[in-house]
């Protein structure tokens, strides 16, 4: 690590790259954007990468001979290499499929592998903290294949119960699909240990990196996962684009997910052979501008330094937890500071999360109320909804203070 | 600091903290449940009709939810007393929002109209004008 990465970065300078953070909301409130787990904001250089592409390069990829198509193809294909490198996949583009988002990554594997390979007696192991994108997908694929779904439980502080994991993952397990970082609890799961457990039983492991890749340095090979998915719109990239890492040998053996142009080598009336990786899994005209802009977002995060971003967010969440814990009418979900990523879900006694969010909005504070696409987890937590503040590299302690003031306002109003 | 949202006027907060007509009726003529999946709000409305089978003698609600859905249930059940089922059927979403007396932000309109939808569906099912459904939903 260079000494530069040890130093904190200048948040004010970071904020200059995100013009949206300067806008006002409501009647002139300063925006405090604390809904980053849902979608992050986009820096100028990523927006520029999109518009530069349309202004200067726009053409379809893979198939053209003309100049623009060549430029577009090279940029789009190289974007795969850059994302592969970003998450530590040494196989480059062959191990990096561009998808619409994390949800599509999960569905791709669930359809292409699960629907073909799962059967009666097989088990898919999830956790109680799975996002609906993984939970619903595997639940439904399991129904269609007569496989069973089992859930690793969480303890009182929102950590995975690893003893239970050892009970649940066994000889019938074919897939372990776990979220790397919980979007509701902020728990950082021990993916490496789970990968060892899965592999001991010849099971695959799929890690959902939607809340990890934007915020910490991820190395899919060190984690030893078979599949790993993430979304561009949560990592300073555009909407509509995400990545799915898959081990090359598995991707080579697996059936395609969608059929059509772009994913084929030779087509005859009766038979078709598939294109090379990763194009075999990218049917139709892909998200070209978005893919190129996503690579720009990855470069941006790398330049700032994922370790520094992680440290900055941990500082913010620690501060937020300290401030929220001053009040005994606030219930906080998830593990203590030090063990959690940069988000916190909570409830204020006697105030519904949606009311809290409405009052926050009057202070210019953007947080998320609801079930955060983890309804079964909320059942375990014993509440229908919670309020979630989630931080990113451009957030400040001042914004945490505004959040706490807004909570106080809600407390006064409802008290 | 602002005094909180314009949505949370005293009247709303009063109905939220001290809901009227809260609870179950012993012997309702009909009863119906609905939910607003966005908020996780769930409300049950019980209605007792007078002997004419048309006039609402009493309406009650139970369930949990945000201040907007609870206040709106409290106010509407008050309003329903003495109303006929036809009049209930004629209510539209603006009527409930008028009852609340504040501007409801677009994302929260579903919270406000949940109780009205539940009462109307319950009445329609009771009168055989609508096939029975387990739950009304605002989605
Ligand atoms: C942990 C987790 N998994 C999956 C998703 C789904 O992401 P997307 O909606 O981009 O597919 C999200 C985001 O909402 C998430 O937080």
Salient structural properties:
heterodimer, A: 415 residues, alpha/beta, Aspartate Aminotransferase, domain 2, 7-stranded mixed sheet, 4-stranded antiparallel sheet, 17 strands, 17% strand, B: 139 residues, Sufe protein. Chain: A, 5 helices, 4 strands, binds pyridoxal-5'-phosphate
Briefly say what this structure is:
Chain A has 415 residues and is of the alpha/beta class. Helices cover 40% and strands 17% of the residues of chain A.
Q: What does the model show?
A:
The complex is a heterodimer of chains A (415) and B (139). Helices cover 40% and strands 17% of the residues of chain A. Chain A is α/β, with parallel strands linked by helices. Chain A has two domains: 3-30 and 305-414, Aspartate Aminotransferase, domain 1 (Alpha-Beta Complex), CATH 3.90.1150; 47-303, Aspartate Aminotransferase, domain 2 (3-Layer(aba) Sandwich), CATH 3.40.640.10. Chain A has a seven-stranded mixed β-sheet, with helices on both faces. Chain B has 139 residues and is of the alpha+beta class. Helices cover 39% and strands 19% of the residues of chain B. Chain B has five helices and four strands; from the N terminus they run αβββααααβ. Chain B has helices spanning 10-17, 67-80, 85-90, 93-100, 109-126, and strands spanning 30-36, 41-49, 56-64, 136-137. In chain B, a hairpin with a 6-residue loop joins strand 2 (41-49) and strand 3 (56-64). In chain B, helix 1 packs across helix 2 and helix 4 (93-100) crosses helix 5. The longest helix of chain B has 18 residues, at 109-126. The A-B interface holds A 351-355, 358-359, 361-363, 369-371, 378, 384-385, 405, 409-410, 412-414 and B 1-5, 7-8, 13, 16-17, 38-41, 64-68, 105, 108, 111. The complex binds pyridoxal-5'-phosphate. Pyridoxal-5'-phosphate binds next to helix 4 of chain A.
